[in-house]
Amino acid sequence: MDIDDLTTEETSPEVRRARPLGRTHSPLCDLVTEQLREAILSGRYTAGERLVEEQLAQEFAVSRNPIREALRILAAEGLVEVRPRHGATVAVMSHQDICEMIEVRATLEGLNARLAARRHDPKVVARLERVLEKGRRLAAGAAPKEFIALNAEFHNLLAEAGGNSTLGEMVRSLRDRTALMFSPVDSVEADRVWAEHAEITKAVIAGDEELAALLASRHVVRAGERLLRENECSDCVRGFPKGKRPQGCPNDA
Amino acid sequence: MDIDDLTTEETSPEVRRARPLGRTHSPLCDLVTEQLREAILSGRYTAGERLVEEQLAQEFAVSRNPIREALRILAAEGLVEVRPRHGATVAVMSHQDICEMIEVRATLEGLNARLAARRHDPKVVARLERVLEKGRRLAAGAAPKEFIALNAEFHNLLAEAGGNSTLGEMVRSLRDRTALMFSPVDSVEADRVWAEHAEITKAVIAGDEELAALLASRHVVRAGERLLRENECSDCVRGFPKGKRPQGCPNDA
DNA sequence: GCAGTGCACACTGCATGCAGTGTACAATGT
DNA sequence: ACATTGTACACTGCATGCAGTGTGCACTGC
Q1: A–B: how many Cβ contacts below 8 A?
Q2: Interval A220-249: pLDDT, tens
Q3: Is A91:A51 a contact under the CB 8 Å cutoff?
Q4: Alpha-carbon distance A227 to nearest alpha carbon in chain B (angstroms)
Q5: B65 CB-to-strand D distance under 7 Å
Q6: Lowest mean pLDDT among A56-65, B128-137, B177-186, B196-205
Q7: Rounded CA gap, B203 and B213, in Å?
Q8: Of A14-23, A163-172, B189-198, B244-253, minimum mean pLDDT range
Q9: Do A77 and B75 touch (CB under 8 A)?
């Protein structure tokens, strides 16, 4: 609740360059949404875990009202599932769900890369290369969390390069929902991923639409394949401790 | 509020086949969401129109709470825009927004048709042909509203034929958001649209992935082109009466 | 006239309270 | 032992109320 300096009144008539409080301070509902999303994406809440309103309300030190709104928003995004009169749970994704999302994401990343290549805006490209360089230095050695952030940064920038914000928003959502599983990569994987990023960027710079699309699409499928291979014997993605699995989890069948 | 027969208690021990009330009755929040979505899509609320919570609450005869939740959900779907402390408005889409959505939708419909052709499940295909036939009879002569419904039915079925529910959900959302503008078609247009549907279906039945994808994609672009042509001089899509335009509407510039 | 100030109204953001529903578990009868 | 009923608890759904914020308009002094 970062409303701390409301007490300091304007005393001198000169322009004080006070930051526009009214514009900047977000409603609690939005803050909760962000934090909750972050918490889910970072794995602090595991798939299938119940999200009890009162509990969250105490955790965030707010009333249940903003919590409820946040939960509806996240439900609309697909990160949370709300069953009427049964409450909210972190969304559980089946093997099939993941396959579906990867298929769609591969197509959309392909389209986006194609658009990026078509425009190859020098400004955005420059920024892309900067992230690429930063990643090249850290890639293999980076902590998982750092790597994820860097990866997100690259892909967000690529989306920007595509210049289709609707598309960008959609892939971001898909990436969020699948990101949970892409997390643990060994250093060999990380190197390969980053090399692929470089290849994509090269194609974008060259304005080679066809190649950029192909590479970006394949980039998603590759990561997906590894993921699906790892999980081929379990229908649910994350390993739930026995007895704590979401109801209906095929692992219990 | 269809809770009408709660009074009828089970009196005889035999199984009464009473429908499970607990499962079926939706929370007000969901009902409001649906009705509001329907109202926006059918044009009963025009783009940029303010959606005042208290007003809606009285309209639906509920409190502001479920209204707020519905608004957040629709905002997450992109049908409504919520500015903190300024309230909600029906989303206004710029020329660019529409271009972007059409581009994405064309790609996704293409992917979906490809998948549908790959599976060409006889059962779904049979249903497709039934809708197609019904449409062929009515197409040109149908009332606009009827035509839209029929069109939606066809596309939903096609999505089902694709077998990727995530994808289906995404194209449905895109179709919703663009549907507003596709509405007024003359009978020549309607005939052409329906002929294209038939072509797509044929390719799906033949299992010709490439053709199905191409046709479906082009189908979207065609409709989009007409739309964009019509609006090429106005940046905002729907004609707002002068003085009632959403703030920032380029038509006022 | 016209910038600046104060005020009133409209609306959103949020907390609180209560009724209704789902669920687990003990009590009861068979 | 087992099905059935009763009951207590946990939680969601929703209404209500109030504080805070945005906005338009009258008022003031110039």
Answers
A1: 70
A2: 998 888 777 765 544 444 444 444 344 444
A3: no
A4: 18
A5: yes
A6: B177-186
A7: 9
A8: B244-253
A9: no
Residue A24 burial class via C-beta count within 10 angstroms: exposed 0-12, middle 13-18, buried 19 and up: exposed
Measure the CA angle with vertex A246, ends A245 and A249; round to 5°: 85
Nearest CB to B104: which of A73, A75, A170? A170
Torsion of CA B31, B32, B38, B40, to 10 degrees: -170
Amino acid letter, B74 = L
Asked if residues A163 and A121 have their Cβ atoms less than 8 Å apart, the reply is yes
Q: In whole numbers, what is the pLDDT of chain B averaged over residues? A: 82
Q: Which chain C nucleotides are covered by protein, judged by CB under 7 A?
A: 10-17, 20-23
For residue A51, give the H/E element and its range: strand A50-51
**Rounded to an integer, what distance in angstroms lies between the CA atom of residue A186 and that of residue A182?**
11
Confirm whether any atom of chain D, the nucleic acid strand, is less than 7 Å from CB of A19. Answer: no
Tell whether the model's pLDDT for residue B70 goes beyond 60: yes
Residue-level pLDDT at B186:
73
Taking only Cα atoms into account, the Rg of chain A, rounded to an integer number of angstroms, comes to 21
Would you say residue B245 has pLDDT above 60? no
Q: What digits encode the pLDDT tens for the residues A81-107?
A: 999 999 999 999 988 999 999 999 999
**Residue B122, Cβ neighbours under 10 Å: how many?**
9
Q: Please indicate whether, in this complex, the C-beta atoms of A107 and B103 are within 8 angstroms of each other.
A: no
- pLDDT number for residue B16: 43
Cβ-based burial of B228 (10 A; exposed 0-12, middle 13-18, buried ≥19) = middle
- Give the sign of the dihedral formed by CA A205, CA A206, CA A209, CA A215: negative
User: How far in angstroms lies nucleotide D7's C1' from the CA of residue A86?
Assistant: 20
The answer to whether the Cβ–Cβ distance between A77 and B76 falls below 8 Å is: yes
Cβ contacts of B209 on chain A, cutoff 8 Å: none
C1' (C1) to CA (B79) span, angstroms: 45
Contacts of B164 in chain A (CB under 8 A): 100, 103-104
- Shortest Cα–Cα distance, A24 to chain B (Å): 10
CB-based contact B167 A104, cutoff 8 Å? yes
Give the pLDDT confidence score for residue B143 in this predicted structure.
Answer: 75
Q: Which residues of A touch B103 (CB under 8 A)?
A: 111, 115, 164, 167
Q: Is A17 exposed, middle or buried (0-12, 13-18, 19+ CB in 10 A)?
A: exposed
